[in-house]
Amino acid sequence: MGEKPRCRVLVVEDEAMIAMLVEDMVLDFGSEVVGPVATMDDAINLARSAELDAAILDINVGGSVIFPVADILSERGIPLIFATGYGSKGLPPRFQDSPTLPKPFSYQSLEEALRSALAGQPCHTEAV
Question: CA 47, CA 124: separation in Å to the nearest integer?
């Protein structure tokens, strides 16, 4: 009773080992993982319908760019974090201001990105 809800973070990553590492990091952060999913179809379905507080998106999923999923999430007001080996230069102009995690990334960089993305969400309140 009185416990705050855990933030729900969609993880889209098609490399199994990376997906498991990201999942562990998100859980260690204290959030709940939605997914991880490794296909565009699954990602689009969850982006449209799942209750989410943030999303961590690999830019290249199965040879397709993730931007249609990012567009859906943006329209829903869900904060995005892009994970990429290409850096922010691989993002279209509409996503240039989104947080980007360069692969490989550390727990600390993921934690900072999640803290920033979830700062305004009701599921994430930190003691001041």
Answer: 20
**CA 76 to CA 59: how far, in whole Å?**
19
Write the pLDDT tens digit of every residue in 45-78: 999 999 999 999 999 999 999 999 999 999 999 9
- 3-state SS class at 115: helix
Token pair for 124: 């994430």
Nearest to 69 by CA among 102, 29, 104, 34: 34
- What's the rounded Cα separation, in Å, for the pair 63 and 76? 25
* Structure tokens given for 4: 């705050």
The pTM of the full predicted model, rounded to 2 decimals, is 0.92
